[in-house]
Amino acid sequence: xxxxxxxxxxxxxxxxxxxxxxxxxxxxxxxxxxxxxxxxxxxxxxxxxxxxxxxxxxxxxxxxxxxxxxxxxxxxxxxxxxxxxxxxxxxxxxxxxxxxxxxxxxxxxxxxxxxxxxxxxxxxxxxxxxxxxxxxxxxxxxxxxxxxxxxxxxxxxxxxxxxxxxxxxxxxxxxxxxxxxxxxxxxxxxxxxxxxxxxxxxxxxxxxxxxxxxxxxxxxxxxxxxxxxxxxxxxxxxxxxxxxxxxxxxxxxxxxxxxxxxxxxxxxxxxxxxxxxxxxxxxxxxxxxxxxxxxxxxxxxxxxxxxxxxxxxxxxxxxxxxxxxxxxxxxxxxxxxxxxxxxxxxxxxx
Length: 350
Ligand SMILES: [Zn+2]
Ligand SMILES: [Zn+2]
Hints:
The protein is mainly α. Among the domains are: 3-152, no CATH class; 298-350, no CATH class. It is 66% helix and 0% strand. It contains 18 helices and no strands. The protein starts with a helix and ends with a helix. The relative contact order is 0.07. Residues 1-7 have low confidence and may be disordered. Bound molecules: zinc ion (2 copies). Residues 26, 53, 57, 87, 91, 162, 164, 182 line the site of one zinc ion (ZN).
């Protein structure tokens, strides 16, 4: 194959129609796709490259739409007749195409359209049981061993063609996600949280867009996961002082959704967000109110000390921590050890 063929396959990357179909099935990759130019290097999240996933399926969709090569559309139709969804059928073909793309990228070889189209002819046919001396299932009239047997071994279709899972356990276990159809919005919810985590390193705005989308999706479809989605967004706001105003709005919503007992943690978050929004006085008032409403919640005192230390009031922080540590045995272990570690930090700095 010559370089012209190699060029043709890259050209399909920019075909908007094919890409649009695939991004509609993976809406959680859309923002990443749009922002990919701002990010360094290949985007690999927990070992998965969502851009490559979408690209490969988009090339297949373009091949089907343009009927070029015609074997792609024929295989696509054949797989659908066997009961596969559009997305899954596209995923099967994409799995065949992917090793060719790797060869182009890594080995700098040109695209081998000949082998690819021969592989496409085998897709959806039961060539596993064909004898070596029987007629080749590709329809060539040659013996299988002299025709497609050597390339059939490369046809490894993944267990879940088309499905994109970039992580698990933020909202759902991997087992559960693996049993969902590839277009499931729960997979999209999970994926967005992992994409946001990835983006937070160098693209906080992108991470923010993703976590906002998850709040909207949870509101629409997963009310039982709304608190989780709001927590993720609030955490991002807590990590980035410039987002403290949005964090306070999210915090209001969280406080309105949870029980009296659960509110105590979010009220400490609120104080932290108030301080980040340049209102340390309000933050301190919030802590006074927390101590009054939850007198046994010792961890709030540790968090208050943490806040004071952060705003250069380490002497006051130290007093609070010492008072906590004098109550060893009476206060819970987490509070005790957190207080001890912070006190050591403060002493080291001074
Ligand atoms: Zn053949
Ligand atoms: Zn897919």
